[in-house]
Design a protein that fits this description.
The chain is an all-alpha fold. Helices cover 80% and strands 0% of the residues. It contains 12 helices and no strands. Helix 2 runs antiparallel to helix 12, helix 6 packs antiparallel against helix 7 and helix 7 packs antiparallel against helix 10. The protein is elongated, with a radius of gyration of 21 Å. The N terminus and C terminus are likely disordered.
Length: 262
């Protein structure tokens, strides 16, 4: 029995998580990709606003593009990646428990930080309040609140904010740990493992260099995004195959046990 069959048989009880993680990985790779905001302003020609007033105006005039540019769909992406990480941790646990546990802890922390630090819904709420405000004092207060939020999470800045940065760093580290265990296990194949390693290293290089050489983000972020898309798709397809093969692998394992085969 090969490693893939052994994993599927041993984790028969988790096969629904394989399916969930696989579908989530495909959705993260094909639909809710990270950093859809840059794609939105490239397609629409809409420049990223550089002030709270600019964001308020954009959200009132073009709500959906504004929310996309505020990285609202990154929240969906990170939630899907969390499901993929859970499935990967179950598959890879037997091969390296230390790295898998580290990846689970860092991934959960990073995803939580990324989701809770996202500014899209807060800016939308302030924009609606600003549009309904009747006095200059109210408008000034709302603009100040908007600038404060942008100081924490600004999609138009190289250094987006402490929360977004730390979440990004933790998720990239978790992805690297899981990709290294993938390579060790042989379950997902070398192409998938190396793609994950390169994607994570690109993200981590950006995290290190962004404060000192900001322009490197123009190279590293698109490169990491492309590699992550490929990694998510390859990982998703393999998780779905593990789900599909689990019943048959379980039957083979039971048959081998009954006959004493190794």
């Amino acid at each position: 029995m090969n490693k893939a069959d052994g994993t599927a048989a041993g984790d028969h009880a988790w096969k629904r998580l394989y399916l969930t993680g696989g579908v989530a990985a495909l959705a993260a790779g094909l639909v809710f990709r990270r950093n859809l905001g840059p794609e939105a302003y490239l397609l629409t020609g809409q420049a990223l606003p550089d002030s709270a007033m600019g964001w308020f105006t954009l959200l009132q005039d073009n709500r959906l593009p504004g929310l996309v540019m505020l990285n609202l769909f990154d929240v969906v992406d990170y939630a899907l990646v969390g499901l993929m990480f859970l499935a990967l941790c179950v598959v890879l646990w037997r091969y390296n428990r230390s790295y898998t546990l580290i990846a689970a802890a860092l991934g959960l922390a990073g995803i939580t930080i990324c989701i809770t630090s996202n500014s899209a819904v807060s800016m939308l709420s302030l924009s609606d309040q600003y549009a309904a405000a009747t006095t200059d004092a109210q408008r000034s207060m709302l603009l100040a609140a908007g600038e404060a939020i942008l100081a924490i999470d600004n999609p138009g800045a190289y250094f987006q904010g402490t929360g977004a940065y730390m979440g990004f760093l933790l998720v990239a580290t978790a992805g690297l740990a899981l990709s290294l265990v993938m390579l060790q296990s042989g379950v997902f194949g070398r192409v998938t493992a190396f793609t994950g390693i390169l994607a994570s290293v690109s993200d981590l290089a950006f995290c290190v260099l962004v404060a000192f050489v900001p322009w490197t983000g123009l190279i590293l972020v698109p490169l990491a995004g492309l590699l992550l898309m490929i990694w998510h798709i390859l990982t998703g397809l393999k998780l779905i195959r593990l789900w599909r093969d689990a019943p048959e692998a379980r039957r083979i394992a039971m048959s081998n046990a009954d006959t004493g085969a190794i």
